[in-house]
Amino acid sequence: MALTRLKYLLVTLILLLAAFSYGYNDFLIKRLLELEKQSVELWARAIEFNSLILQDETDQALSDAIKLIDNQVGKSHSRDESTVYQTLSELLRKVENGRNSFDFVTSELIIKERVRVPMVVVDEAGEIVASRFVEDIQLTAEFVDKLAGIHEPIEILIGSRENPETQYVYYGESNLVSTLRYFPYIQFGFILLLIGIGYTSYRSIINSEQSNLWVGMTKEAAHQLGTPLSGMYGWIELLRDKLQTGSKSQDEGGIGELSDIQRSEGHRSWEKELEILSELEQDVHRLSTVADRFNKIGSSTDLHPTLLKEHLEQSVQYMRRRLPKTGIDIILTFSDQLDEKFRKPALNPVLFQWVIENLIKNAADASSKTIELIVGGESDHLIIDVMDDGSGIDKKLWKEIFRPGYSTKKRGWGLGLTLTKRIVEQYHKGKILVLRSEPGKGTTIRILIPV
Predict the structure, then answer these.
(1) CA distance 200 to 91
(2) Residue 146 contacts by C-beta under 8 Å, 6 or more apart in sequence?
(3) Among candidates 140, 133, 145, 136, which has minimal Cα distance to 178?
């Protein structure tokens, strides 16, 4: 649950950061576009103003007036008249210098754009007459259409005021704006990467803690089982020696005079006891195998070529003897065209038998009447399907059944399928999954083992 809440928290955080980043970036882009538009409009008006014929006429008239006054200075007959002409000449030169300053403002501060916004000037016929910050190879009608799709063109009047020519300034966006449009996605990617690293690290720590817990539990279980198992092996040997000694004494007549009937009944009794003792020894040996399985969890597991059919048959026979007498039929089927590599895959027999027995037991707990194991191979994977006709599993629970603690039974820890998944995926580098299942119609669980 804690991991799920963390997921939702991280997703919410990502969405909030993305929304804020996108909103603020959009605000900056709009402000920059306004400034760029103002800059382009100023450039357009400067071009419009400088193109007027009136400006050239004024410049020429002013220059002629200065020359005329300078000529009159030399022709003056009095000092006062000469002073007047000199004063007028100086005033006109100041006016001319002012106009030169205006030309500098127009050319250097307005027309000489500091922000490189691509601009194209088009006349009424659609012909490109001027451009700025655009390479010659780009000057095409398609490029003008592209700029028209970005901004509305600015209309300017070129020529005389009486008969002006209308032209249009099309403009795009600066590289700064274009870069800013991608910035939220770059920022979002970095945020996602950092959160992903954090989440992966957190999950790795959780998995490591769970793994250590699993290993600790299984090692302790193996240790706790080991001591009583050693004692049970000793008691079994003592009982066997005692029964065999008693049987031998009876055969030799060491227990007194017994009738043939009594001696026959005694033999049957000792034979039954020896049979029970043998079954007891098998169960103790089974417990020893279970302890060995627990001991292998968390240890480096050796995989080696294994006679698959032999070990599967052992598991099936064991479960047939140990399942409740409910008429459950367990069928083991091998594909007729099974390659040798699938018949002798690299396995750890002790752990893999545990997998099969767990799956058969779970199928039996699901009220199955028939359990079938189908062994086949495809490409480079051994395939084992465990099919049953039991109660089935709802699709939304297909992944849940392999998680620790999940169980539909009133008793149990819900660890059987979790251990099964761990053995298949971590120790055998395979995969286990619910292939198909339907409530009331049974379940098929598939094991895939690379060979």
Answers:
(1) 80
(2) 172
(3) 133
Q: CB atoms < 10 A from the CB of 281, how many?
A: 16
Judge whether 271 and 321 are in contact, CB under 8 Å. Answer: no
Which one, of 275, 281, 283, lies nearest residue 247 by Cα?
A: 275
Check: CB of residue 406 under 8 Å from CB of residue 414: yes
What is the rounded distance in angstroms from the CA atom of residue 300 to the CA atom of residue 336? Answer: 34
22-62 pLDDT, tens digit per residue, is 888 888 889 888 888 888 888 888 777 766 644 555 555 66
The pair of three-digit structure tokens given for residue 130, joined into one six-digit string: 């001027």
* Residue 451, token pair as written in the block: 């060979």
The count of residues in the chain is 451
Structure tokens at 164: 């002006």
Distances (CA, A) of 139 to 8, 175, 279: 51, 18, 95
| Helix, strand, or coil (residue 405) | coil
Give me the amino acid identity at 433: L
Beta bridge partners of 374: 333, 385
> Which residues share a beta bridge with 386?
373, 445
Do 328 and 371 touch, CB atoms closer than 8 A? Answer: yes
Which residues are 42's β-sheet partners? none
What gap in Å lies between CA 130 and CA 132, rounded to an integer? 7
Task: Give me the torsion for CA of 425, 427, 430, 431, rounded to 10°.
Answer: -20
The answer to whether residue 105 scores a pLDDT higher than 50 is no
Handedness of CA 21, 22, 24, 25 (dihedral sign): positive
17: left (phi over 0), alpha (psi -120 to 50) or beta: alpha
Percent of the chain whose pLDDT exceeds 90: 18
Structure tokens at 362: 């779970």
CATH fold for domain 304-450: Heat Shock Protein 90 (3.30.565)
Separation of CA 126 from chain center: 51
Nearest to 2 by CA among 202, 272, 174, 223: 202
Cβ 219 vs Cβ 295: under 8 Å: yes
pLDDT digits (tens, 9 = 90+) for 156-181: 888 766 778 899 999 999 888 888 88
For tokens 């600790």, what's the residue? 216
Contact (CB, 8 A) for 351 and 427: yes
